[in-house]
Write a structure and sequence with these properties.
Helix content: 25-40%
CATH class: Alpha Beta
Shape: globular
Number of helices: 4
Largest sheet: 6 strands, antiparallel
Bound molecules: 7,8-dihydro-7,7-dimethyl-6-hydroxypterin
Structural class: alpha+beta
Radius of gyration: 15 Å
Number of strands: 8
Order of helices and strands: EHEEEHEEEHHE
Strand content: 25-35%
CATH architecture: 2-Layer Sandwich
CATH superfamily: 7,8-Dihydro-6-hydroxymethylpterin-pyrophosphokinase HPPK
CATH topology: Alpha-Beta Plaits
C-alpha cells in the first residue's frame, strides 16, 4: 500500500462543490482509503482569461497501481463533466497524481512527482496540511524547503464550508 497525494482543481460550475464531489468519489475507489482532504484555496489562473481556480489536495492510501489510479481519476473527471476541448482550458475538475509513495514514474501518460509541484503554491500549501514537513522528494528536498522557496502569494484559503 502506498500513500498518494492527489491535486484537485476546478474553475467551472461551482468549483468548491466539484472538489467536494471529487473527494466523495475518491473515497469510493476500490482498494483505496481516503485519508484526508486539505482546505480549499482560491487563486487566479496561471493562464490569463480564465475564471479563478479552487484547489485542494487529497491523501489516499491505495493498493491500486499508478496507471490504474490514473484511469480511475480520469473516469471521475469525466463523470463530473470534464470536456477536453483545449489542453490548458478551463475545467470542471482536474485530478493530478502529485506524489505516489516515493516513486519516480516516467511514462507517456504519467509523470510523478508532478512536474510543476515545486513552483505551485496552490499545490504545496494544501499538501503541507496533510503531509509531514520532512516529506522528501526524490531529489532530496523536503516539503519545508519547497514551501520556503514558494511564497504564499495570491492564495486565499477559503473558510471551511
Ligand atoms: N491555475 C490555478 N490557480 N490552479 C490550477 O489548478 C490551474 N491549472 C491549470 C492552469 C490553467 C495552468 N492554471 C491553474 O491547468
Amino acid at each position: 500500500m502506498e500513500r498518494i497525494y492527489i491535486g484537485m482543481g476546478s474553475n467551472l460550475a461551482d468549483p468548491a462543490e466539484q472538489l467536494r464531489s471529487a473527494a466523495l468519489a475518491l473515497a469510493r475507489l476500490p482498494q483505496t482509503e481516503l485519508v484526508g482532504v486539505s482546505g480549499f484555496y482560491q487563486s487566479d489562473s496561471l493562464l490569463p482569461g480564465q475564471p479563478r481556480y479552487t484547489n485542494a489536495v487529497a491523501a489516499l492510501d491505495s493498493h491500486l497501481a499508478p496507471l490504474e489510479l490514473l484511469d480511475a481519476l480520469q473516469a471521475i473527471e469525466n463523470g463530473q463533466g470534464r470536456q477536453r476541448l483545449e489542453r490548458w482550458g478551463p475545467r470542471t475538475l482536474d485530478l493530478d497524481i502529485v506524489l505516489f509513495g516515493d516513486r519516480l514514474i516516467d511514462e507517456p501518460r504519467l509523470k510523478v512527482p508532478h512536474y510543476h509541484l515545486q513552483e505551485r503554491a496552490f499545490v504545496l500549501y494544501p499538501l503541507a496540511e496533510l503531509a509531514p514537513a520532512d516529506l522528501r522528494l526524490a531529489d532530496g528536498r523536503t516539503l519545508t524547503e519547497l514551501l520556503a522557496a514558494c511564497p504564499f502569494v495570491g492564495l486565499e484559503r477559503l473558510p471551511a464550508a
